[in-house]
């Protein structure tokens, strides 16, 4: 089968023109937003998107607006040429790779805006703002106020407003019919669904299943930063999730007990817990005992790498 070479678009006006031209020809468009350094988890989202639309756009953009200044924007892995090769290897390929260079440009040079990254008195600012919290001409942020409060939102204070805002921008530029997000980032997927419902975006949001490596580790671009020892230790996360699921199946359904034993086993393996939460799949509110429709979510540090993982669990 001939490999399909995706068209690479780096400019938001050109992207919107392409989408509108295709729509005028009756084509539907599926979007898979990513931050690049693609792995099989990302490719599975593309395969899912191909089931729903004629054309596929994959965005590759490491969004500074979702990183606080003390987070890992500067070390986030990237390999654009490698990503293109992986995309070419997928059956039927993708049509466009959107790698915007001007997503937050509003007609003046960054240098002239005097923006420095820094820490605002009393709070952390994002990598799109200066030390007084001013954006580089960007001052509109979307907040999904309840869903963003717990779990990742607690330890990454600007993360979800940055994600919701950049996804809204991508939707406005690309105007997709369908967008696919991975359930690996469970809270992110739920937040995007809620944003789309609340703001009446004409986009169908699909949550696609979490992909694991053979040894159980959830695939993640950041895994590349794990040393072999940390990678081994990190397997404690998925092990703890599988154990919690089988304990629940055997009737152990008190969440505080399940949480405690998960925390103990991840810490015993050398992980530093950010959170272990058992929450309702839709509201993401904490639940006390396992019932249908809960999800166990974990974030933990191994060395300098923060990993997240989760598992949907139903009662026995
Ligand atoms: N293992 C996975 N299974 C399914 N979807 C995934 C997986 N990993 C990432 N995704 C999805 O791919 C999309 C892009 O994610 P992103 O580019 O941040 O990759 P990532 O591997 O999650 O990186 P990291 O967690 O290191 O930031 C998101 O919707 C995310 O949920
Ligand atoms: C959705 C997303 C592409 C927004 O930058 C990012 O948070 C991600 O890759 O999960
Ligand atoms: N997949 C989530 C992107 C981030 O951690 O910034």
From TrEMBL:
The keyword DNA damage does not apply. Pathway: Cofactor biosynthesis; (R)-pantothenate biosynthesis; (R)-pantothenate from (R)-pantoate and beta-alanine: step 1/1. InterPro entries: Pantoate_ligase, Pantoate_ligase_C, Rossmann-like_a/b/a_fold. It catalyses: (R)-pantoate + beta-alanine + ATP = (R)-pantothenate + AMP + diphosphate + H(+). One of its GO terms (molecular function) is ATP binding. Keywords: ATP-binding, Cytoplasm, Ligase, Nucleotide-binding, Pantothenate biosynthesis. GO terms for biological process: pantothenate biosynthetic process. One of its GO terms (cellular component) is cytosol. Coiled coil: none annotated. It is found in: Cytoplasm. Its EC number is 6.3.2.1. PANTHER family: CYTIDYLATE KINASE/PANTOATE-BETA-ALANINE LIGASE (PTHR21299), PANTOATE--BETA-ALANINE LIGASE (PTHR21299:SF1). NCBIfam families: panC. Homodimer. Belongs to the pantothenate synthetase family. This is Pantoate--beta-alanine ligase.
């Amino acid at each position: 089968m001939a490999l399909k070479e995706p068209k690479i678009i780096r400019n938001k006006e050109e992207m919107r023109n392409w989408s509108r031209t295709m729509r005028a020809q009756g084509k539907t468009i599926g979007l898979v937003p990513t931050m690049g350094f693609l792995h099989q988890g990302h490719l599975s989202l593309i395969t899912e998107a191909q089931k729903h639309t004629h054309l596929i756009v994959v965005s590759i953009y490491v969004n500074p607006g979702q990183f606080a200044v003390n987070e890992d924007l500067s070390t986030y892995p990237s390999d654009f040429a490698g990503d293109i090769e992986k995309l070419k290897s997928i059956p039927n390929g993708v049509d466009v790779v959107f790698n915007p260079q001007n997503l937050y440009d509003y007609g003046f040079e960054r240098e002239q805006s005097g923006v420095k990254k820094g820490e605002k008195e009393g709070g952390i600012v994002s990598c799109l703002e200066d030390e007084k919290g001013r954006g580089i001409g960007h001052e509109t942020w979307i907040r999904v106020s309840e869903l963003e409060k717990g779990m990742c939102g607690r330890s990454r204070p600007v993360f979800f407003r940055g994600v919701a805002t950049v996804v809204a921008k991508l939707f406005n530029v690309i105007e997709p019919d369908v967008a696919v997000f991975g359930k690996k980032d469970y809270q992110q997927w739920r937040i995007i669904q809620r944003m789309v419902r609340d703001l009446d975006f004409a986009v169908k949001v699909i949550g696609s299943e979490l992909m694991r490596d053979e040894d159980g580790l959830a695939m993640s671009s950041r895994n590349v930063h794990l040393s072999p020892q940390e990678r081994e230790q990190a397997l404690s996360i998925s092990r703890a999730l599988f154990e919690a699921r089988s304990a629940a199946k055997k009737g152990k359904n008190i969440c505080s007990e399940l949480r405690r034993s998960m925390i103990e086993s991840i810490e015993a393996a050398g992980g530093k817990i950010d959170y272990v939460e058992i929450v309702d799949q839709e509201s993401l509110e904490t639940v006390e005992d396992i019932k249908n429709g809960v999800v166990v979510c974990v974030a933990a540090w191994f060395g300098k790498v923060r990993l997240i993982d989760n598992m949907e669990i139903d009662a026995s």
